[in-house]
Write a structure and sequence with these properties.
By secondary structure, the protein is α/β, with parallel strands linked by helices. The protein folds into four domains: about 5-205, P-loop containing nucleotide triphosphate hydrolases (Rossmann fold), CATH 3.40.50.300; about 220-370, P-loop containing nucleotide triphosphate hydrolases (Rossmann fold); about 375-435, no CATH class; about 465-590, RRM (RNA recognition motif) domain (Alpha-Beta Plaits), CATH 3.30.70. The protein is about 35% helix and about 15% strand. Helix 3 (about 30-40) runs parallel beside helix 4. The relative contact order is 0.09. It binds adenosine monophosphate. Adenosine monophosphate binds near residues 50, 51, 308 and 310. Adenosine monophosphate binds next to helix 4. Keywords: ATP-binding, Helicase, Hydrolase, Nucleotide-binding. This is RNA helicase. One of its GO terms (biological process) is response to cold.
Length: about 625
C-alpha cells in the first residue's frame, strides 16, 4: 500500500522520517494543506488550532520546497513563544533527519545569543524564531534574509495578542517582496485579517473545522460556585478525576503561585509556571510536566502559551481570561492529536454572561456541570482503587517468598473480608475527609433570573424527605427494583415515594414526610445478598424534610453487617448535603495525605494531616451534569 503521505506528494526521505515518528495517516489539516502548500507559489491562510498536526502541515512542504544544497536561510518561521519555537524547530529537525544538508536553528530569547549566532553563521536553511530575539539578531546584521522564499506566521493571533505586531512588520521588511507567506491562526480577529490583507496576495484560505470554532474534540463545561469556594471546587474536581493531567489557568502570577502552593500543601502533585520564574526554573517545571511527573500545572496565560504536551486531559479555567480570545488558546492545550479533552471553567454566578460570550466566539455550547458530592468522590475513588488493584502487575518472583506469611495472616478471613479490608484501607481516608463535605454548587441565577435546578427541586419537593440507602446500581438495582424493595420492606406504597436517584454503591430516594416514620419503623434488620441494608435521612433533605442541616442519625435497618463500599461508613454526615445549613466545614488545607505522585508510585504516609485523598488509577469518568 502506498504511504498516504507519499500520495500527498511527500518524498521518501521525509515519509520515512514521519513514519519513525509514528505518523501513519495525515491529520485532516495535513491532508488539506500539504498539496496546496507543495505548489509553493501561493500565500496561504490556515485557520487551525494547535494540536491538529499543524506543524507538519507546513513543515513537510517546506522541506520539499527548500534547496538544501544552499546554506542560506530560505524559510523563516515566526511564533509567539520560546516553547513553541523549540517545539517547531525540533519537529522540523525530525522531519528532515534523512534529508542531506538540512539545518534548522531555533532563535529565541532567554538563551545564549552567541550560540544562536554561531549556528546561523555555520549556515542554516530554516530559521524558527520568536520576534524579539529575531529582531535583535537582524539588528546585529548577523543574518541575511535575501534568499528567504517562505515566511510562516504561526499562532498569528497569539503573536498579535502579545504585542508583536511592530516586530513582525520590521522583520518582514527585511525579507524579499516575492516570498510567500503562510499564516496560521487559531482565531481570525480583525487584526489578523489585516495582516493577511497587508502582507498577502490573494491567499488560499483553508479553515480546519468551523471558523473560530474550538477543537471539536474538546468538551466545555462550567461549574458555578461561590467565589470563596473556588479552591475547594478545584480540589473536588481533581479528586473526582483520579487520572486528571491538567493545566490550570489563573489570571495573575500571584494567584498562580498561591494555588500551586496550596495544592502542594494539600498533598497534590502540582507546580506553578509564570513569568517571575527564571528560564531555568520554567524549563524544569515544564520538563516535569512533560514527563508526567507532575499532575497539575498551574499557569498564567503568557507562560503557558505554546505548551505542546500531549494527553492533557483537562484544562481548568480557575479564573476566566480577560481576553475572551485567550479561551481558545487555553482550551487548545487539551484535545490534541485526535484525543478528547475537557475544558472546565470555575465561575461565580456573575460570570455567566462571559460564558455566553465565549460560547458565541467558539461557536460551541458549554454544559453546566455540577460539582460532585463527597459521596460521588468517595465512590469514584473507591472504584478507581478497585481497578488499580485489579490491574496491578504482580511481581511473582519477588512476592512469592512472602505469600505463605501473608496467607497465614489472612487465614481467618474470607475472600470477601480480605477484599473489603484492602478497599477500605484507602477508601476510609476519603470518607473521613469528605464526611460533612458541603455542597459547593452555588444555586446560581441564570441569565433569565431563574434559580438553578436544585433550588427548584427543593421548593417543589418540600413535602418529601430525602433518604440514603446503601444499595445502588452495583447491586444490579434499577429504579424500579429499588422502589419495590423499599415499598415491600418499609410497608409503604409506591405513591409515597418521590424521586429516586440511583447511584453506584448507594442511592437516594424521596419519601413523603407523612410516611417516613412508617418506613423506618418497618425497615428493620433488612438484608440483601447477606448484607445489612441501611437507610438514613440524608443531610440533603429538601426544605421541611426534617433533617436539614443537622447531624444525620444513622438508622440501621440491617444491624451490624456493614455493607460493601460503605462498610466502615460510620457517618457520611451529609456527604451529599447540598445545603449545608450554613457554616459547613470547608475543605481546607488539612486535606492532606497520601496523594501518589503521578508516576504511579504511592507516596506513603502522605503529608501532614493524613486523612486525605489518594489518587489512583481511573475508573470511567462519570461527571454529574445538571
Ligand atoms: P501540532 O498541531 O503540530 O502541535 O501537533 C500536535 C501533535 O500531533 C504533535 O505531538 C505531533 O507530533 C502529532 N502529530 C502531527 N501529525 C500527526 C500525524 N499525522 N499522525 C500522528 N500524530 C501526529
Amino acid at each position: 500500500m502506498i504511504n498516504p503521505f507519499k500520495l500527498l506528494g511527500i518524498s521518501d526521505d521525509v515519509v520515512n522520517a514521519v513514519k519513525d515518528l509514528g505518523f501513519e495517516n495525515p491529520t485532516p489539516i495535513q491532508e488539506q494543506a500539504i498539496p496546496v502548500l507543495l505548489e509553493g507559489n501561493n500565500d496561504f491562510v490556515g485557520l487551525a488550532q494547535t494540536g491538529t498536526g499543524k506543524t507538519a502541515a507546513f513543515g513537510l512542504p517546506l522541506i520539499e520546497l527548500i534547496d538544501f544544497s544552499s546554506k542560506k536561510p530560505q524559510a523563516l518561521i515566526l511564533c509567539p513563544t520560546r516553547e513553541l519555537c523549540l517545539q517547531i524547530a525540533s519537529d522540523i529537525k525530525n522531519y528532515s533527519k534523512n534529508t542531506p544538508g538540512a539545518s534548522v536553528v531555533a532563535v529565541y530569547g532567554g538563551a545564549n545569543i552567541m550560540q544562536q549566532l554561531r549556528e546561523i553563521r555555520n549556515g542554516v536553511q530554516v530559521v524558527v524564531a520568536t520576534p524579539g530575539r529575531m529582531l535583535d539578531i537582524i539588528g546585529r546584521k548577523a543574518i541575511d534574509f535575501s534568499s528567504v522564499k517562505y515566511v510562516v506566521l504561526d499562532e498569528a493571533d497569539e503573536m498579535l495578542n502579545m504585542g508583536f505586531q511592530d516586530d513582525i512588520n520590521d522583520i518582514l521588511s527585511t525579507t524579499p517582496d516575492d516570498k510567500k507567506t503562510w499564516l496560521f491562526s487559531a482565531t481570525m480577529p480583525p487584526e489578523v485579517r489585516r495582516i493577511a490583507k497587508n502582507y498577502m496576495d490573494n491567499p488560499t484560505e483553508l479553515t480546519m473545522g468551523t471558523k473560530n470554532t474550538g477543537n471539536v474534540n474538546i468538551e466545555h463545561e462550567y461549574y458555578v460556585v461561590r467565589a470563596r469556594d473556588k479552591y475547594a471546587a478545584l480540589k473536588r474536581i481533581v479528586d473526582f478525576n483520579p487520572e486528571i493531567f491538567a493545566v490550570v489557568f489563573c489570571k495573575t502570577k500571584l494567584d498562580t503561585q498561591d494555588v500551586a502552593e496550596n495544592l502542594i500543601k494539600d498533598g497534590y502533585n502540582a507546580d506553578a509556571l509564570h513569568g517571575d520564574l527564571s528560564q531555568q526554573q520554567r524549563d524544569k517545571v515544564m520538563q516535569r510536566f512533560r514527563d508526567r511527573n507532575m499532575q497539575l500545572l498551574i499557569a498564567t496565560d503568557v507562560a503557558a502559551r505554546g505548551i505542546d504536551v500531549n494527553n492533557v486531559t483537562h484544562v481548568v479555567n480557575y479564573s476566566l481570561p480577560d481576553e475572551i480570545e485567550s479561551y481558545t488558546h487555553r482550551s487548545g492545550r487539551t484535545g490534541r492529536a485526535g484525543k478528547t479533552g475537557i475544558s472546565i471553567c470555575i465561575i461565580n454566578s456573575k460570570e455567566l454572561g462571559k460564558i455566553r460570550q465565549i460560547e458565541r466566539i467558539i461557536g460551541k455550547s458549554f454544559t453546566k456541570a455540577e460539582l460532585p458530592t463527597g459521596f460521588d468522590v468517595c465512590e469514584k475513588q473507591l472504584f478507581s482503587l478497585v481497578h488499580k488493584v485489579h490491574n496491578v502487575e504482580v511481581n511473582e518472583s519477588q512476592i512469592d517468598q512472602y505469600i505463605p506469611r501473608i496467607m497465614d495472616e489472612f487465614a481467618e478471613l474470607s475472600k470477601e473480608d480480605v477484599i473489603k479490608r484492602f478497599a477500605s484501607l484507602e477508601f476510609n481516608r476519603f470518607l473521613e475527609y469528605y464526611k460533612n463535605a458541603p455542597d459547593l454548587n452555588a444555586a446560581a441565577l441564570d441569565e433569565r433570573g431563574e434559580r438553578g435546578e436544585r433550588g427548584a427541586r427543593g421548593a417543589r419537593n418540600s413535602d418529601y424527605t430525602r433518604l440514603f440507602i446503601n444499595l445502588g446500581s452495583v447491586d444490579e438495582f434499577t429504579r424500579g427494583d429499588l422502589l419495590s424493595f423499599v415499598c415491600n420492606n418499609g410497608k409503604i406504597s409506591g405513591k409515597n415515594i418521590g424521586k429516586i436517584d440511583l447511584k453506584g454503591v448507594y442511592s437516594f430516594f424521596e419519601v413523603e414526610n407523612a410516611s417516613v416514620d412508617t418506613l423506618f419503623a418497618n425497615f428493620n434488620d433488612i438484608q440483601f445478598n447477606n448484607r445489612g441494608v441501611r437507610i438514613e435521612k440524608s443531610g440533603d433533605a429538601p426544605e421541611g424534610g426534617g433533617s436539614r442541616g443537622g447531624e444525620r442519625r444513622p438508622y440501621s435497618g440491617g444491624g451490624e453487617r456493614k455493607s460493601y463500599g460503605g462498610g466502615e461508613r460510620k457517618s457520611y454526615g451529609g456527604g451529599d448535603r447540598r445545603s449545608s445549613g450554613g457554616g459547613g466545614r470547608r475543605e481546607g488545607a488539612s486535606a492532606g495525605g497520601g496523594f501518589r505522585d503521578f508516576s504511579g508510585k504511592p507516596r506513603e504516609g502522605g503529608n501532614a494531616g493524613g486523612s486525605g485523598r489518594r489518587e489512583s488509577s481511573g475508573s470511567g469518568d462519570r461527571r454529574r451534569r445538571s
